[in-house]
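Service request form, structural biology core

Requester: graduate student, group of Dr. S.
Request type: structure prediction, single chain
Budget code: on file
Notes: please return the result as structure tokens.

Sequence provided:
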Amino acid sequence: PTQGPLLLFAAAFDEVTLAPWQLIYAVVYPLVCAMLLYRLAHRLFIRYVIERSGV
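Core staff response, request fulfilled:
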């Protein structure tokens, strides 16, 4: 999930020129990964912390 932001940094310092699909990839891919990891962490938190505490 770090390749996208690295592409943006490289483009900011004129090291590379991004195609439109690369720009979309650089923005959307980390957001999707963060969303999926948040949902996984939330589900596991409920399963292993909330349900086992008896609340």
